[in-house]
Amino acid sequence: MLSRSSLSRNAPRALSAGRRAMASAANPSFQYDVTEAAGVKVANREVAGPTGTLALVAKAGSRYQPFPGFADALEKFAFKTTLKRSALRITREVELLGGEISSTHSRENVVLRAKFLANDLPYFTELLAEVASQPKFADHELSEVVSYLLKYNQQAAFANPENVALDAAHGVAFHRGLGSPVTPSPSSPYEKYLSADALAEFAKDAYAKSNVALVATGPNSADVNKWVGQFFKDLPTGTTAGQYKVQPSEASKYFGGEQRIASKTGNAVVIAFPGSSAFGTAGYKAEASVLAALLGGESTIKWTPGFSLLSQATKGFNQLNVSTKNLAYSDAGLFTVTLSGQAEQVGAASKNVVDALKKAAAGEVSSEDIKKAAALAKFRALESVQTLETGLEATGSGLIHGAKPYQIGEIAQAIEKVTEQQVKEVAKSFLTGKATLVSVGDVFQLPYAEDLGLTV
Amino acid sequence: MSAPSITNYIVKRPWLKRWMTPIAQWFDDLIPEESETVQKAIKRLSSKEAYDRVFRIRRAVQCSISHTLLPPHEQTKPEEDVEYLSPIIREIEKEAKERADLDNLVVRK
């Protein structure tokens, strides 16, 4: 065991501002090389290793879809039958090569992802190009495969009260655009808009050269450019005129408000405020991510509630989950506190959230806690970029939306510069501005915004 | 229409086909349904095609029961007699063959 005195001697050292510089800031292999090949933006990070990853990020998420369910269906149609190969053949070939293919979509992007052994780069580049430029969109595939996948996806998404609350919070906060649900609700009549022909039109625009970015990690940049230049020549140039084109991005506007949804699946409350947009955009506020870490709610260390204000405040509640996040998008952000669990405890803890915000706004937080929060915020930002799942999309999204790709060193610097005063200001602006409150579950017990002292 | 079909037998013999053609032109309606492939193909028809198909079959059954002939303007004209089901059946057969081939794949390195 460490003695008490040695701990107290080391703790200030760990928190001191003049720490060693981040290794990654100086290490060029963590930066992305950005080029253009065959008219497509390509970002590559060379990492020596036996495997590689290649992702195609298309600006066609639920925010840009012309009708509900289109982004979802486009995602599910990825790696299905193309004009050259059947879906079965694609699956079997990938199995033989030992790769992994997947597709996901978020509010802003549809991401097709391939992981593979380093030698197979040409095959997977060709595959992604084929999926994007020569999809078949067979009618029967929609009715026999994709429509079921959509349904299961909806059921999974809507069985989770937290998810329902988050989706509703976006709707209340941004109305259309960013507010449109990631997955259409099972009770919404989305099927009437979906048809294979409409999706084919949408895909032509979604996978247009100006609308996609390729992000690779692992392979050699010269190789990536060579193969992308060769295979992505045939990508559509995107001049779909009709109603199925990717919707133009109108600047997101924050509205705020309150919504209550009765549900038997569980209880969740989302308290949201206008947060910080993604790094590299005009609305980027590093202090929002520091405040998110300060409010926290989830411990990063085992067997302790952690330092964050909310986990300290809700220590006594044993059937409650709290987490605070700043969900960043290309031109707006949503700062969310999500509470889920037993209805009584969720209701009681939502009051604690507002109290914690008031404390932060009044500056009643020790500077040590803010330093800890800044360190955690920095770690989270850097980790999310370094992790393949989140980093690829963030980088691609940065490229398509005209901003720069994530450059790790700069994020670290931005967060280091955050002052206590800035954190205080953000908390204050949350309390004075319009909030968003969504309660899902046993609405008989869950609080109204009025009860919490929030203006909506 | 569960009787064993003689369509293939007729189609294979040009002289017989020539003789039969005026009687039974709509070959795609006469493809026996009792197989998984054809059932799947029928499901893949567009709703208009599926409706028309059932309509023609029911009308034919009615005519057969009542021993009448269709009035000439309702009879199918040669230019309307298109292959609407066979292409789908061929596609499904191709898929099945590809699956069987891939299932029996041997990897040599």
TrEMBL record, chain A:
GO molecular-function terms, A-Z: metal ion binding
Domain Peptidase M16 C-terminal: from-to ranges: 194-374
Membrane topology category: Peripheral membrane protein
Entry keyword annotation includes Electron transport: yes
Listed Gene3D superfamilies: Metalloenzyme, LuxS/M16 peptidase-like (3.30.830.10)
Subcellular location: Mitochondrion inner membrane
Membrane-crossing segments per the record: none
Pfam families referenced in this protein's UniProt entry, alphabetically: Peptidase_M16, Peptidase_M16_C
Record flagged with keyword Ubl conjugation: no
Keywords recorded for this protein, A-Z: Electron transport, Membrane, Mitochondrion, Mitochondrion inner membrane, Respiratory chain, Transit peptide, Transport
GO CC terms of this entry: mitochondrial inner membrane
The Peptidase M16 N-terminal domain, residue ranges: 48-180
Top-level lineage group: Eukaryota
Main location: mitochondrion
PANTHER family referenced in this protein's UniProt entry, alphabetically: CYTOCHROME B-C1 COMPLEX SUBUNIT 2, MITOCHONDRIAL, METALLOPROTEASE
Family: Belongs to the peptidase M16 family. UQCRC2/QCR2 subfamily.
The name this protein goes by in its record: Cytochrome b-c1 complex subunit 2, mitochondrial
Organism: Penicillium cataractarum
Highest classification ranks of the organism: Eukaryota, Fungi, Dikarya, Ascomycota, Pezizomycotina
TrEMBL record, chain B:
Any one GO cellular component localisation term in the record: mitochondrial inner membrane
Record GO biological process: mitochondrial electron transport, ubiquinol to cytochrome c
Pfam families from the UniProt entry: UCR_14kD
Chief location: mitochondrion
Presence of the UniProt keyword Lipid metabolism in the record: no
Keyword Electron transport: yes
Swiss-Prot/TrEMBL keywords: Electron transport, Membrane, Mitochondrion, Mitochondrion inner membrane, Respiratory chain, Transport
Alphabetized InterPro entries for the sequence: QCR7, QCR7_sf
Position of the signal peptide: none
Topological type in the membrane: Peripheral membrane protein
Location(s), subcellular: Mitochondrion inner membrane
Record family assignment: Belongs to the UQCRB/QCR7 family.
PANTHER family: CYTOCHROME B-C1 COMPLEX SUBUNIT 7, UBIQUINOL-CYTOCHROME C REDUCTASE COMPLEX 14 KD PROTEIN
Protein name in the entry: Complex III subunit 7
Organism of provenance: Penicillium cataractarum
